[in-house]
């Protein structure tokens, strides 16, 4: 009991010493933190120590403590609404795409003749290539099979063109006489009609038309010179198409392999699979269109012939050629046949020709095209109209002819590439494991060993 006060004194002294040491450590820690804040003004706590201004620059005093606080301005990117940012991102990409398409259209317009000739060669090759394949299967060499097919094909086309020109020239005098008779009948009908048209008015119209032709002689002459230039361009395009057809028939596979070599390696498998499918679509389209056009020409030509309309054979050939322009070509060729019948044979014959044309075109649209062309090259009528209009505006009649097969091939390629990309994505997915693998495992059919039932 006498030693208790001394023990308590020693314990109190030790606690006091430990408290002093803790106070010293706390003081050193606060001193170090104050030095860090002085060195780094952006510290999280404590006022920032302003740095000394450079020489020659006056220091700006800090605002007083009672001044209102000013909110910091947000980041400009964060201030723009999200929808507007998305629209801006899409807009500049669309502008880049539109600029690229504009440059591409300018390039196509500059070399329009070459592109149309090559596309025409592709269409002719798609029509003749099955014949080359059959001749090769009979044992003929590739070069001989190509030569025989090209010579026969070009000979048939040349004979058809010569026959059309011959028929037109042979019936031109008869057609001119019937046109004059038709004009006289129209004049007499106008005089007897309830419209009260007098012969002097008709003569005034005829004289005004003659004066218009006489005053515009220079324009007609320039139009004739333009027509000569167009004929030269057409002949050049025909020669280019012939040479391109020969090389495509002979070396088409090598040309395709060369094109595949230009494609990036990552996209090459998809393009290699889409190419043959696009070629089959183009071949089916060309062969189906030729068959449908031939049927139209035969039946409408027979109807015109039995109705005693002059130049029935040239009109049938024109119907065959215009059938390669979907929708628009049928309307133009049918209207031409009706006008010739109206001028030469009268109103009743023209109405009968119109009935024949409409009946054949209805059979073509609802029976022949779905049966012959099939679903592989079926294109929506709206897409056909827009494609023909766009092709006609860009490249005239040639553009209208190649627009629809281009849309059909593009539809096939895009559909295949979409399916191919989905298949590749499924293949690259991680394999299922655990309970997921058991749920997705194929179940064997009943009666097979391993069947859970």
UniProtKB/TrEMBL annotation:
The keyword Transmembrane helix applies. It is a multi-pass membrane protein. It comes from the Bacteria. Pfam families: AI-2E_transport. Residues 432-441 have a biased composition (Low complexity). The keyword Cytoplasm does not apply. Residues 18-62, 432-453 are annotated as: Disordered. Belongs to the autoinducer-2 exporter (AI-2E) (TC 2.A.86) family. Residues 50-62, 442-453 have a biased composition (Pro residues). The lineage of its organism: Bacteria, Bacillati, Actinomycetota, Actinomycetes, Kitasatosporales. This is AI-2E family transporter. It is found in: Cell membrane. The chain crosses the membrane at residues 144-165, 228-250, 284-306, 312-332, 339-363, 383-409. InterPro entries: AI-2E-like. Keywords: Cell membrane, Membrane, Transmembrane, Transmembrane helix, Transport. Residues 20-31 have a biased composition (Basic and acidic residues).
């Amino acid at each position: 009991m006498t030693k208790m006060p001394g023990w308590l004194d020693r314990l109190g002294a030790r606690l006091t010493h430990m408290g002093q040491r803790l106070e010293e450590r706390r003081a050193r820690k606060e001193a170090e933190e104050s030095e860090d804040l002085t060195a780094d003004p952006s510290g999280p706590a404590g006022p920032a120590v302003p740095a000394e201004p450079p020489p020659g620059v006056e220091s700006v005093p800090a605002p007083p403590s009672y001044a209102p606080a000013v909110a910091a301005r947000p980041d400009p990117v964060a201030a723009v609404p999200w929808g507007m940012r998305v629209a801006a991102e899409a807009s500049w990409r669309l502008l880049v795409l539109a600029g690229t398409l504009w440059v591409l259209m300018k390039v196509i317009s500059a070399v329009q003749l070459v592109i149309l000739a090559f596309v025409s060669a592709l269409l002719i090759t798609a029509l003749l290539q099955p014949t080359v394949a059959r001749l090769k299967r009979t044992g003929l060499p590739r070069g001989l099979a190509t030569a025989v097919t090209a010579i026969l094909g070009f000979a048939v086309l040349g004979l058809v063109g010569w026959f059309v020109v011959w028929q037109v020239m042979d019936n031109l005098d008869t057609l001119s006489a019937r046109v004059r008779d038709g004009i006289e009948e129209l004049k007499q009908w106008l005089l007897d009609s309830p419209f009260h048209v007098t012969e002097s008015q008709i003569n005034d119209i005829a004289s005004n038309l003659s004066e218009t032709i006489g005053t515009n002689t220079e324009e007609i002459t320039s139009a004739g010179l333009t027509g000569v230039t167009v004929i030269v361009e057409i002949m050049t395009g025909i020669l280019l198409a012939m040479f391109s057809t020969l090389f495509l028939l002979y070396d088409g596979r090598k040309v395709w392999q060369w094109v595949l070599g230009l494609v990036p390696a990552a996209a090459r498998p998809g393009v290699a699979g889409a190419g043959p499918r696009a070629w089959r679509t183009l071949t089916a389209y060309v062969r189906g269109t030729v068959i449908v056009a031939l049927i139209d020409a035969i039946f409408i030509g027979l109807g015109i012939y039995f109705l005693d309309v002059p130049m029935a054979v040239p009109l049938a050939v024109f119907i065959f050629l215009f059938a390669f322009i979907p929708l628009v070509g049928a309307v133009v060729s049918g209207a031409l046949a009706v006008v010739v019948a109206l001028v030469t044979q009268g109103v009743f014959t023209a109405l009968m020709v119109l009935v024949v044309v409409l009946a054949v075109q209805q059979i073509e649209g609802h029976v022949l095209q779905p049966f012959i062309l099939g679903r592989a090259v079926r294109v929506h009528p709206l897409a056909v109209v827009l494609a023909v209009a766009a092709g006609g505006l860009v490249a005239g009649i040639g553009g209208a002819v190649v627009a629809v097969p281009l849309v059909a091939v593009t539809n096939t390629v895009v559909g295949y590439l979409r399916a191919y990309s989905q298949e590749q994505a499924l293949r690259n997915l991680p394999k299922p494991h655990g309970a997921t693998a058991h749920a997705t495992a194929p179940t064997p059919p009943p009666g097979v060993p391993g069947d859970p039932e």
